[in-house]
């Protein structure tokens, strides 16, 4: 197997595409061996054979009464950036090199997830990630999302609304019935005919802007759909109060959820606590 070099230079054309459309797909950014490690780690956590540390395990609501377990039930692992194996994704030199060309070299990983969509999973409503973030400026935030399996329309690939990052945070982020408490969607901003479906092969990675409207379809196939994703922000970003803004609703929910877990934390504090500063490999 050929080793991938850690150097990845974003071309002017790719940069222009990102600025104009709000996303950029880079094919083959990660290799199979690396992806295999993440898949194995996920399976170990599903089976409970390794300590999950501070990872939050989330089950797929729509499958809870279907008599399925493990990989066929677990939808995502959250806050994976402190895990020994998954942090090799959130701190992968090739991912960081691309991220740093968009938002600079002083980076924090704010959020990270391993997402598994078992067959039968419902769709992930269209949304803008910035709605969940109390830090700015927006130009200093970016997401990376890497396919682990072949992702297709049938198994619920990501879709994006090109150019939708050029507007502000959209309103309302209605809470979808039947969905989890923290799912706030912007269905009206993602008409079917405006969706660009990102079918991707293992290792392909999409980088996207925090205001880009995106979501993913239901998994109507018999295959799982796995990916790993992280959000990065520059250390130069500042926390902002979202009181009196469109984001106030989500802020209250997050604070209430922390309260239920026994912590008295502000929305901003929840982000301060879970984010992690990153040291770039010295060559960067
Ligand atoms: O993979 C998905 O279904 C949604 C992921 C997503 O919204 C994100 O990574 O920001
Ligand atoms: Fe998202």
TrEMBL record:
GO biological process, one term: fatty acid alpha-oxidation
E.C. no: 1.14.11.18
Protein name, entry field: phytanoyl-CoA dioxygenase
Broad class of enzyme this protein falls into: oxidoreductase
InterPro entries linked: PhyH, Phytyl_CoA_dOase-like
Lineage: superkingdom: Eukaryota
UniProt GO MF annotations: phytanoyl-CoA dioxygenase activity
Similarity comment: family membership: Belongs to the PhyH family.
Coiled coil, from the record: none
């Amino acid at each position: 197997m050929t080793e991938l070099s850690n150097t990845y230079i974003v071309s002017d054309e790719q940069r222009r595409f990102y600025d104009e459309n709000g996303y950029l797909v880079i094919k083959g950014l990660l290799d199979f061996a690396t992806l295999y490690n993440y898949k194995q780690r996920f399976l170990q956590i599903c089976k409970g054979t390794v300590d999950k540390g501070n990872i939050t395990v989330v089950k797929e609501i729509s499958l809870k009464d279907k008599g399925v377990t493990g990989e066929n039930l677990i939808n995502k692992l959250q806050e994976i950036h402190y895990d020994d194996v998954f942090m090799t994704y959130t701190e992968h030199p090739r991912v960081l090199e691309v991220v740093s060309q968009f938002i600079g070299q002083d980076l924090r990983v704010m959020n990270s997830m391993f997402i598994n969509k078992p067959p039968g999973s419902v769709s992930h409503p269209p949304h803008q990630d910035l709605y969940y973030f109390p830090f700015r400026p927006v130009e200093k935030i970016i997401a990376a999302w890497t396919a682990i399996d072949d992702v297709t329309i049938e198994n619920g690939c990501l879709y994006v609304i090109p150019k939708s990052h050029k507007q502000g945070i959209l309103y309302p982020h209605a809470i979808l019935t039947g969905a989890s408490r923290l799912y706030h969607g912007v269905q009206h901003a993602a008409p079917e005919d405006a969706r660009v479906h990102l079918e991707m092969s293992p290792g392909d990675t999409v980088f996207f802007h925090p205001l880009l409207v995106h979501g993913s379809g239901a998994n109507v196939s018999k295959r799982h759909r796995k990916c790993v994703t992280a959000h990065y922000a520059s250390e130069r970003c500042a926390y902002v109060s979202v009181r009196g803004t469109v984001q106030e609703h989500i802020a209250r929910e997050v604070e209430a959820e922390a309260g239920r877990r026994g912590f008295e934390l502000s929305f901003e504090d929840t982000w301060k606590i879970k984010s992690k500063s990153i040291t770039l490999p010295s060559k960067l």
